[in-house]
Write a structure and sequence with these properties.
binds magnesium ion; 4 domains; two-stranded antiparallel ribbon; alpha+beta; binds adenosine monophosphate
């Protein structure tokens, strides 16, 4: 395998002087050298051909023994020194101190076609940051991360990616429901790929320790590697860096709201400094449109990370990053201005995004109200988000809205209980469709042109929670065909793909309360 190894991170940043793999507080350093755990009987389950080609890995490489051994942690790439990163984080609103890569090991950085990538194994064993856990991952959560990160990429959502999914051949003990019934599950390792895995927490940790030298070294490194448009290193430049991170974070969250993705654990250690979706844990996809929905059982009570709160949490997390960077900037007013800008830009960008979902290309002062009313109607009775928006593009703007329910025909499939659409609920939909079709009259584009445009922002296929679970159940029995089918389907989420039509359907009733389908724990 011909990878162009650069080892950028370990070359430029301070290392933990202790080489032992004991669990500890690591200060004055950005990472610790570690060796992935040797696995019992590694086996590849799936490889992502596209990600491989982004890295310059050929199809022949993918099938080689060398690839299997490297990407399950049994062999170390020549001239590399794998390492785990040190970071801290605010978890559920509270400072949690040092966290770090407890089960992720960066193999190295590589360069291909002028792009730089970090290769990271998740689930490859203990590190100094493993705290009380085992450094491993199970097949269930690894399938979810592997499929979802690739699905998100093809949806156009900024995200880390995945190169391979392998079984370690080892058993891992997990208590899925945290109810005192642990059981053995198959251990798995995903190779994740990203320009960087640095998180907000990577900066917070040094600031919290008042280690401003390491903080500055890390920020300077980040700018050099990932924000080349920033050319010097003074306070103004650090502000520009913060503004760039703010913009990227906002952009990512707007995409989440567009496709109905709920991250589930937006702690600051899970916020990428590049605004990439990172750390796919108890995430979920909206099925019924519900601002209050969270997939994470740990967050059931306060629902801090619910769908409708993601934009606010993004801002809260940026505030923590601003505090961490303050010693380099020392200008609270300037940082505040950027944070206030997030709020303003959010409203603008959100409206723009929602208008694109509705196929509106021109401006009208009533658009805000139209969007608000739609969002409120979508909560009136359980309505599948994906099907509703996808089918909305079939509306004929010249069809009159009459008293009967025929105007609802194109979106009827999205209602879980269409028989509930009567009385005031029906009246409200009638009112909305009247406003919407009237509004469409102001647009000069044809119905067909509008449909084409809407179908590029409203996906037909998303990784519904129960779909992952079906792929997991089969994979657990050694059948990877559904995993591959979903992987292929999700490469083209905006295309009709008649052969996958059966996945363009509401969640089946059996999945409503099934573990893994509606709610997920952090156990992984
Ligand atoms: P998460 O909520 O998955 O983002 O994880 C929070 C922290 O716990 C991170 O520092 C992880 O590296 C660590 N962690 C999660 N699971 C494990 C595990 N099985 N072994 C070691 N560390 C873990
Ligand atoms: Mg994490």
């Amino acid at each position: 395998m011909q990878l162009k190894i650069t080892n950028t991170f370990t070359k430029d940043l301070p290392a933990d002087p202790l080489l032992e793999n004991t669990r500890r507080q690591v200060s004055g350093a950005c990472y610790s050298y570690v060796t992935p755990k040797t696995t019992k009987k590694p086996q590849l389950v799936h490889t992502a051909d596209e990600v491989a080609s982004v890295l310059g890995i050929t199809e022949i490489d993918l099938k080689s023994e060398e690839f299997l051994n490297i990407f399950t942690g049994n062999t170390i790439l020549k001239n590399t020194t794998p390492y785990a990163m040190c970071y801290g984080g605010h978890q559920f609103g509270n400072w949690a101190g040092q966290l770090g890569d407890g089960r992720a090991i960066n193999l190295t950085e590589v360069e291909h076609d002028n792009k730089k990538w970090t290769l990271q194994l998740k689930g490859a064993g203990e590190t100094p940051y493993s705290r009380t856990a085992d450094g491993l991952a199970v097949l269930r959560s690894s399938v979810r991360e592997y499929l979802c990160s690739e699905a998100m990429f093809h949806l156009g959502v900024p995200t880390t990616r995945a190169l391979s999914l392998g079984l370690s051949g080892d058993e891992v003990l997990r208590d899925v429901l945290y109810d005192g019934h642990p059981d053995y599950e198959k251990g798995a390792i995903v190779c994740r790929v990203s320009p960087t895995f640095l998180r907000f927490g990577s900066y917070e940790i040094h600031s919290s320790r008042k280690d401003y030298n390491t903080l500055k070294t890390l920020v300077d490194y980040t700018i050099t590697q990932h924000f080349p448009e920033i050319t010097s290193r003074n306070k103004e430049d650090y502000l520009q860096f913060f503004k760039a991170v703010t913009d990227k974070t906002l952009e990512m969250i707007i995409h989440w709201q567009r496709v109905g993705f709920v991250h589930g654990v937006m702690n600051t250690d899970n916020m990428s400094i590049l605004g990439l979706t990172i750390d796919y844990g108890p995430y979920g996809w909206l099925e019924g449109y519900d601002f209050d929905w969270t997939p994470n059982t740990t967050d059931k009570q306060h629902k801090r990370y619910r769908f409708g709160n993601q934009p606010n949490i993004g801002l809260w997390n940026l505030l923590q990053l601003a505090n961490a960077l303050f010693p380099l900037i020392e200008d609270a007013a300037a940082l505040e201005e950027i944070l206030n800008g997030y709020n303003e830009e959010f409203h603008q960008k959100y409206e723009q995004m929602m208008k694109s979902k509705l196929g509106l290309t021109t401006d009208n002062t009533s658009d805000k109200e139209l969007i608000k009313e739609l969002e409120s109607n979508l909560h009136l009775s359980e309505t599948d988000m994906t099907i509703f928006y996808r089918n909305l593009s079939n509306i004929n703007k010249n069809n009159p809205i009459t008293d009967d329910t025929s105007f609802l025909a194109s979106v009827l499939d999205s209602f879980y209980n269409p028989e509930e659409i009567t009385g005031t609920v029906l009246e409200r939909w009638e009112k909305w469709f009247k406003s919407y079709t009237q509004r469409l009259q102001e647009e000069t584009i044809t119905d067909q042109e509008r449909k084409i445009a809407m179908d590029t922002v409203n996906p037909k296929y998303v990784l519904r929670n129960y779909m992952s679970q079906l792929a997991i159940d089969a994979a657990d029995k050694g059948d990877y065909s559904l995993l591959d089918k979903l992987y292929m389907m999700l490469k083209n989420p905006y295309k009709e793909q008649q052969e996958y039509q059966k996945w363009f359907a509401k969640r089946p009733e059996w999945a409503r309360h099934k573990v893994g389908c509606s709610m997920l724990s952090c156990s992984s």
